[in-house]
Each structure stands twice: as structure tokens, then as C-alpha cells.
Design brief:
With 226 residues, the chain is α/β, with parallel strands linked by helices. The chain is built from 8 helices and 7 strands.
Length: 226
């Protein structure tokens, strides 16, 4: 064993005002959207720490590393996303992880702060028996995708129409063309719109997420839902 069986890659945006949660910001304002996004990420990091699975943070914008460290903390692994589009950035991130010797790698987004940690942990178990694992999002995209080292192929992410609402279907079609065995995880939701934020709050009043930074921030800003 090389001690590098599993790895989580999390994609995070540099938290610049006006560049994160842009659809949500149309309702609650750019600064409030940024504050919420920053708490989404901190809650996801806390969930990942609870799984005891190694993870690495891939962030946008090369000059943002100091901002990331000041926001999330210095005791994490950081790497800038590299590539001309999302597909290339995903490919390069998987290639980096597999070149480091990891056997099973999942990549997840940072738009679903209340994703149960067990879904992440179970993803690796499903990868022992399948070539790939994928978590569909309600909006037609996906919140998580993973491969084993020997089953990863970069062509899966080429030619995808990103931010179209068809990413899940297109990716599944490519996986089927490759003859890959795929485990589909439970559908979850991204927090992109005002309605998503309200649902997040209502759904988590009595869940493990109720004490999260996101929920505390919402409770302390009651005018969000006026």
C-alpha cells in the first residue's frame, strides 16, 4: 500500500465580490452572496475533515492563494486550477492526483454546503466496484464525480456544454460510450438561486447542518427572507 488510496478534490472560486453566486446576488446583493459563499465553503471543509479522507483545495485565479489561506486556513493543501475551461481544469486536477499516486479520486463542487458527509465517504466504496461515480444535481449538472486511476479518461470531459443544465446527461452519455460502469449517487441540489437558499434553510432546521456557519449566518440576517 502506498498510503494514498483516496483523495477528494474540491473546486472553489476566489471569493471576489460580484464573481460568486451571481444568480443569488441578484436577489440578496453581491456582498451578501459573497459572505454566504464563504460560509458554504467553510462548512464543506468541516464536513470533509469529519470524513478523515485527505483533500486538496483547487482554487481559481493564481493571485488568490493568500486570500484562500487567510479565509480557510494555512493547514491545507492548495493548488490553482489550470486550464482554458472547466473541462480542462477538471482533467488536469484528476491527472495531478493520479500522478501523485492516489488510486481513487473524487472531485466535488462547492455549491452544496449541506451535502451529507456519508455521500462523500460512500463514493469511495462505490468506486471499488465501479469505474466511475457521479452525483447528479437538480439543475442538470452534477455535484461530484470520481474515478479509479485505471478507469480515468480525459475524453469524458471534452466537448461538454458547461453551465447548460445538460452536463449530467452529456457526461453520462460519454461514460456509456466508453462502456464504463457507473454508480449514480442520490440527487442533491446546488444553492444558486434565492429559492435554493430558502429551501436550504427550511430543510435544515433540525438536521446535522443546523449548527453550521451557513445556518447561523442566515439566522443572524433575518432580513434575507423578507
Amino acid at each position: 500500500m502506498n498510503g494514498k488510496e483516496n483523495l477528494v478534490i474540491i473546486f472553489i472560486k476566489c471569493p471576489l465580490v460580484g464573481t460568486v453566486k451571481t444568480r443569488l446576488s441578484k436577489t440578496i446583493g453581491e456582498k451578501m452572496a459573497r459572505e454566504l459563499y464563504m460560509r458554504f465553503v467553510l462548512d464543506i471543509i468541516a464536513s470533509l475533515e469529519g470524513t478523515n479522507i485527505p483533500f486538496v483545495i483547487y482554487y481559481t485565479i493564481d493571485s488568490c492563494e493568500e486570500t484562500m489561506v487567510n479565509w480557510i486556513g494555512k493547514d491545507y493543501r492548495y493548488h490553482v486550477q489550470e486550464g482554458i475551461d472547466l473541462g480542462n481544469r477538471i482533467i488536469n486536477s484528476f491527472n495531478n492526483a493520479f500522478s501523485e499516486g492516489y488510486e481513487r479520486v473524487i472531485l466535488m463542487a462547492s455549491d452544496s454546503p449541506d451535502l451529507p458527509p456519508n455521500i462523500i465517504k460512500n463514493s469511495f466504496e462505490f468506486l471499488r466496484l465501479n469505474d466511475a461515480v457521479i452525483g447528479p444535481a437538480e439543475d442538470g449538472g452534477y455535484y461530484l464525480v470520481g474515478f479509479r486511476k485505471e478507469t480515468f479518461t480525459h475524453t469524458i470531459f471534452r466537448g461538454i456544454e458547461w453551465s447548460s443544465g445538460t452536463e449530467f446527461r452529456e457526461t453520462m452519455n460519454k461514460l456509456k460510450e466508453k462502456g464504463a460502469s457507473v454508480h449514480i449517487l442520490p440527487e442533491w441540489y446546488d444553492i444558486d438561486r434565492y429559492e435554493d437558499l430558502k429551501n436550504l434553510y427550511e430543510n435544515n432546521k433540525n438536521t446535522f447542518f443546523s449548527g453550521s456557519k451557513t445556518m447561523k449566518f442566515i439566522r443572524n440576517n433575518t432580513d434575507l427572507f423578507k
